[in-house]
Amino acid sequence: MKNMRLLNAILNEAPQFNMWSRSIVLCYRGSIAHGTHVPNTEPNSIDDQDVIGVAIPPKPWFFGLKEFEQFEHKEGCWDVLIYDFRKFVRLLIKSNPNVMQVLWTPEKHILKTSPAFQDLVSNRHLFAHKGIYKSFCGYSHGQLHKMENMAYRGYMGEKRKQLVEKFGYDCKNAQHLIRLLRQGVEFLQTGELVVERPDRAELIQIKTGQWSIEKVKGLAARLFAAMEQAHAKSQLPEQPNIPAIDELVQIVLRCEFRVDR
To answer: Of the residues 2, 24, 188, 243, which has the maximum number of CB atoms within 10 A of its CB?
Structure first.
Protein backbone atom coordinates (compact mmCIF):
# COMPACT_ATOMS: atom_id res chain seq x y z
CA MET A 1 0.00 0.00 0.00
CA LYS A 2 2.83 2.40 0.86
CA ASN A 3 4.45 1.71 -2.51
CA MET A 4 1.21 2.45 -4.35
CA ARG A 5 0.85 5.77 -2.50
CA LEU A 6 4.31 6.72 -3.73
CA LEU A 7 3.34 5.83 -7.30
CA ASN A 8 0.18 7.93 -7.04
CA ALA A 9 2.21 10.86 -5.72
CA ILE A 10 4.70 10.56 -8.61
CA LEU A 11 1.91 10.59 -11.20
CA ASN A 12 -0.28 13.23 -9.54
CA GLU A 13 2.60 15.64 -9.00
CA ALA A 14 4.25 15.40 -12.42
CA PRO A 15 5.46 18.86 -13.53
CA GLN A 16 3.75 18.74 -16.94
CA PHE A 17 0.21 17.79 -15.83
CA ASN A 18 -1.52 15.15 -13.71
CA MET A 19 -0.27 11.94 -15.29
CA TRP A 20 -2.73 9.73 -13.45
CA SER A 21 -5.86 11.52 -14.65
CA ARG A 22 -4.58 12.00 -18.22
CA SER A 23 -3.34 8.43 -18.70
CA ILE A 24 -5.45 6.12 -20.85
CA VAL A 25 -3.44 3.12 -19.61
CA LEU A 26 -0.95 2.37 -16.87
CA CYS A 27 0.53 -1.09 -16.55
CA TYR A 28 3.50 -3.00 -15.29
CA ARG A 29 6.33 -3.59 -17.70
CA GLY A 30 9.61 -5.44 -17.42
CA SER A 31 10.09 -8.27 -14.97
CA ILE A 32 6.65 -8.08 -13.33
CA ALA A 33 4.82 -8.23 -16.66
CA HIS A 34 7.12 -10.99 -17.92
CA GLY A 35 6.74 -13.07 -14.77
CA THR A 36 10.49 -12.95 -14.11
CA HIS A 37 10.50 -10.58 -11.12
CA VAL A 38 13.00 -11.55 -8.44
CA PRO A 39 12.07 -10.06 -5.02
CA ASN A 40 14.64 -7.73 -3.50
CA THR A 41 14.96 -10.14 -0.59
CA GLU A 42 16.95 -12.39 -2.94
CA PRO A 43 20.72 -11.72 -2.99
CA ASN A 44 20.95 -11.48 -6.82
CA SER A 45 17.86 -9.32 -7.31
CA ILE A 46 18.18 -6.00 -9.16
CA ASP A 47 14.54 -5.63 -10.19
CA ASP A 48 12.49 -2.45 -9.77
CA GLN A 49 8.73 -2.12 -10.16
CA ASP A 50 8.55 -0.76 -13.70
CA VAL A 51 5.43 1.02 -14.94
CA ILE A 52 4.65 2.22 -18.45
CA GLY A 53 1.72 4.38 -19.48
CA VAL A 54 0.17 6.42 -22.26
CA ALA A 55 -1.22 9.91 -21.67
CA ILE A 56 -3.36 12.23 -23.74
CA PRO A 57 -2.34 15.74 -22.66
CA PRO A 58 -4.90 18.47 -21.95
CA LYS A 59 -6.12 20.63 -24.86
CA PRO A 60 -3.49 23.39 -24.45
CA TRP A 61 -0.79 20.85 -25.22
CA PHE A 62 -2.44 20.17 -28.57
CA PHE A 63 -3.60 23.62 -29.62
CA GLY A 64 -0.91 25.82 -28.05
CA LEU A 65 2.86 25.95 -27.92
CA LYS A 66 3.38 23.41 -25.16
CA GLU A 67 5.01 20.14 -26.08
CA PHE A 68 4.97 16.73 -24.43
CA GLU A 69 6.67 13.52 -25.58
CA GLN A 70 7.28 11.52 -22.43
CA PHE A 71 7.62 11.64 -18.68
CA GLU A 72 10.25 9.62 -16.83
CA HIS A 73 10.70 9.38 -13.09
CA LYS A 74 12.53 6.95 -10.82
CA GLU A 75 11.94 7.05 -7.09
CA GLY A 76 12.05 4.35 -4.45
CA CYS A 77 11.13 1.02 -6.02
CA TRP A 78 9.28 2.69 -8.94
CA ASP A 79 10.63 3.30 -12.43
CA VAL A 80 7.92 5.16 -14.38
CA LEU A 81 7.72 5.97 -18.09
CA ILE A 82 4.68 7.71 -19.63
CA TYR A 83 4.46 8.35 -23.39
CA ASP A 84 2.42 10.91 -25.25
CA PHE A 85 -0.40 9.12 -27.08
CA ARG A 86 0.75 10.07 -30.58
CA LYS A 87 4.39 9.23 -29.86
CA PHE A 88 3.24 5.89 -28.47
CA VAL A 89 1.40 5.12 -31.71
CA ARG A 90 4.41 6.12 -33.81
CA LEU A 91 6.55 3.71 -31.77
CA LEU A 92 3.95 0.98 -32.25
CA ILE A 93 4.17 1.49 -36.00
CA LYS A 94 7.94 0.93 -35.74
CA SER A 95 7.37 -2.27 -33.70
CA ASN A 96 9.25 -0.93 -30.67
CA PRO A 97 9.31 -3.94 -28.29
CA ASN A 98 8.85 -1.85 -25.16
CA VAL A 99 5.61 -0.28 -26.38
CA MET A 100 4.32 -3.30 -28.32
CA GLN A 101 4.05 -5.24 -25.08
CA VAL A 102 1.53 -2.74 -23.69
CA LEU A 103 -1.16 -3.86 -26.16
CA TRP A 104 -0.63 -7.50 -25.17
CA THR A 105 -0.14 -7.06 -21.41
CA PRO A 106 -2.37 -9.43 -19.38
CA GLU A 107 -5.23 -7.70 -17.58
CA LYS A 108 -3.86 -8.61 -14.16
CA HIS A 109 -0.85 -6.37 -14.78
CA ILE A 110 -2.89 -3.32 -15.86
CA LEU A 111 -3.21 -0.63 -13.19
CA LYS A 112 -5.52 1.68 -15.12
CA THR A 113 -7.42 1.33 -18.38
CA SER A 114 -9.94 3.32 -20.42
CA PRO A 115 -12.21 3.05 -23.49
CA ALA A 116 -9.48 4.74 -25.55
CA PHE A 117 -6.99 2.05 -24.60
CA GLN A 118 -9.51 -0.69 -25.28
CA ASP A 119 -9.91 0.77 -28.79
CA LEU A 120 -6.16 0.32 -29.28
CA VAL A 121 -6.23 -3.25 -27.97
CA SER A 122 -9.20 -4.13 -30.19
CA ASN A 123 -7.22 -2.88 -33.19
CA ARG A 124 -3.78 -4.14 -32.25
CA HIS A 125 -3.75 -6.32 -35.37
CA LEU A 126 -3.15 -3.09 -37.31
CA PHE A 127 0.35 -2.96 -35.80
CA ALA A 128 1.24 -6.58 -36.61
CA HIS A 129 3.59 -6.67 -39.60
CA LYS A 130 6.91 -8.13 -40.70
CA GLY A 131 8.77 -5.01 -39.58
CA ILE A 132 8.92 -6.59 -36.14
CA TYR A 133 11.81 -8.69 -37.47
CA LYS A 134 14.11 -5.71 -37.96
CA SER A 135 13.03 -4.08 -34.70
CA PHE A 136 13.34 -7.10 -32.43
CA CYS A 137 16.59 -8.20 -34.08
CA GLY A 138 18.00 -4.70 -33.58
CA TYR A 139 17.08 -4.59 -29.90
CA SER A 140 18.42 -8.13 -29.42
CA HIS A 141 21.76 -7.25 -30.99
CA GLY A 142 21.89 -4.25 -28.63
CA GLN A 143 21.40 -6.52 -25.62
CA LEU A 144 24.04 -8.92 -26.95
CA HIS A 145 26.53 -6.07 -27.31
CA LYS A 146 25.88 -4.84 -23.78
CA MET A 147 26.11 -8.36 -22.40
CA GLU A 148 29.46 -9.04 -24.06
CA ASN A 149 31.03 -5.62 -23.57
CA MET A 150 29.32 -4.56 -20.34
CA ALA A 151 28.41 -1.30 -22.08
CA TYR A 152 27.01 1.60 -20.03
CA ARG A 153 28.42 0.22 -16.79
CA GLY A 154 28.53 3.77 -15.49
CA TYR A 155 24.73 3.84 -15.52
CA MET A 156 24.30 0.65 -13.55
CA GLY A 157 23.50 0.58 -9.88
CA GLU A 158 26.19 -0.67 -7.55
CA LYS A 159 24.47 -4.02 -7.01
CA ARG A 160 24.27 -4.67 -10.74
CA LYS A 161 27.93 -3.78 -11.17
CA GLN A 162 28.79 -6.28 -8.45
CA LEU A 163 26.82 -9.00 -10.22
CA VAL A 164 28.62 -8.26 -13.48
CA GLU A 165 31.93 -8.67 -11.66
CA LYS A 166 30.69 -11.85 -9.99
CA PHE A 167 29.48 -13.62 -13.14
CA GLY A 168 31.75 -12.02 -15.75
CA TYR A 169 28.93 -10.68 -17.91
CA ASP A 170 25.65 -8.79 -17.55
CA CYS A 171 23.09 -11.47 -16.78
CA LYS A 172 20.16 -9.06 -16.99
CA ASN A 173 21.05 -8.15 -20.58
CA ALA A 174 21.41 -11.87 -21.31
CA GLN A 175 17.89 -12.53 -20.07
CA HIS A 176 16.50 -9.67 -22.17
CA LEU A 177 18.36 -11.02 -25.20
CA ILE A 178 16.79 -14.47 -25.01
CA ARG A 179 13.33 -13.14 -24.18
CA LEU A 180 13.30 -10.67 -27.08
CA LEU A 181 14.43 -13.28 -29.58
CA ARG A 182 11.79 -15.75 -28.47
CA GLN A 183 9.07 -13.10 -28.54
CA GLY A 184 10.16 -12.08 -32.03
CA VAL A 185 9.97 -15.64 -33.35
CA GLU A 186 6.55 -16.15 -31.76
CA PHE A 187 5.17 -12.90 -33.13
CA LEU A 188 6.31 -13.59 -36.69
CA GLN A 189 4.64 -17.00 -36.48
CA THR A 190 1.37 -16.01 -34.80
CA GLY A 191 0.93 -12.22 -34.85
CA GLU A 192 0.64 -12.31 -31.05
CA LEU A 193 3.11 -11.01 -28.46
CA VAL A 194 3.47 -13.33 -25.46
CA VAL A 195 4.29 -10.88 -22.65
CA GLU A 196 3.97 -13.15 -19.60
CA ARG A 197 6.59 -15.72 -20.40
CA PRO A 198 5.95 -19.48 -20.31
CA ASP A 199 9.75 -19.85 -20.12
CA ARG A 200 9.98 -17.61 -17.05
CA ALA A 201 11.82 -20.20 -14.94
CA GLU A 202 14.60 -20.47 -17.51
CA LEU A 203 14.80 -16.69 -17.91
CA ILE A 204 15.18 -16.29 -14.15
CA GLN A 205 18.00 -18.83 -14.24
CA ILE A 206 19.78 -16.72 -16.86
CA LYS A 207 19.15 -13.47 -15.00
CA THR A 208 20.50 -14.85 -11.74
CA GLY A 209 23.76 -16.08 -13.26
CA GLN A 210 23.00 -19.81 -13.49
CA TRP A 211 24.00 -19.97 -17.17
CA SER A 212 27.47 -19.46 -18.60
CA ILE A 213 27.90 -16.73 -21.20
CA GLU A 214 28.82 -19.43 -23.75
CA LYS A 215 25.50 -21.19 -23.18
CA VAL A 216 23.58 -17.91 -23.57
CA LYS A 217 25.41 -17.02 -26.80
CA GLY A 218 24.84 -20.48 -28.23
CA LEU A 219 21.09 -20.27 -27.64
CA ALA A 220 21.01 -16.71 -28.99
CA ALA A 221 22.69 -17.80 -32.23
CA ARG A 222 20.05 -20.49 -32.74
CA LEU A 223 17.24 -18.04 -32.00
CA PHE A 224 18.60 -15.43 -34.44
CA ALA A 225 18.51 -18.16 -37.10
CA ALA A 226 15.00 -19.17 -36.05
CA MET A 227 13.81 -15.58 -36.30
CA GLU A 228 15.24 -15.27 -39.81
CA GLN A 229 13.38 -18.40 -40.85
CA ALA A 230 10.17 -17.21 -39.16
CA HIS A 231 10.44 -13.90 -41.02
CA ALA A 232 10.81 -15.68 -44.37
CA LYS A 233 7.72 -17.82 -43.71
CA SER A 234 5.61 -15.22 -41.88
CA GLN A 235 2.08 -14.55 -43.12
CA LEU A 236 2.01 -11.08 -41.56
CA PRO A 237 1.63 -8.03 -43.83
CA GLU A 238 4.81 -6.42 -45.06
CA GLN A 239 3.84 -3.00 -43.68
CA PRO A 240 1.45 -1.60 -41.04
CA ASN A 241 -1.93 -0.29 -42.20
CA ILE A 242 -1.11 3.42 -41.84
CA PRO A 243 -4.47 4.83 -43.13
CA ALA A 244 -6.42 2.65 -40.69
CA ILE A 245 -4.08 3.57 -37.82
CA ASP A 246 -4.41 7.27 -38.64
CA GLU A 247 -8.19 6.97 -38.60
CA LEU A 248 -8.04 5.17 -35.25
CA VAL A 249 -5.91 7.96 -33.75
CA GLN A 250 -8.36 10.58 -34.99
CA ILE A 251 -11.33 8.68 -33.55
CA VAL A 252 -9.66 8.40 -30.13
CA LEU A 253 -8.70 12.10 -30.02
CA ARG A 254 -12.06 13.32 -31.28
CA CYS A 255 -13.73 11.30 -28.54
CA GLU A 256 -11.27 12.54 -25.91
CA PHE A 257 -11.79 16.21 -26.79
CA ARG A 258 -15.42 15.82 -27.87
CA VAL A 259 -14.97 17.41 -31.27
CA ASP A 260 -16.61 16.59 -34.58
CA ARG A 261 -14.85 15.94 -37.86
So the answer is: 188
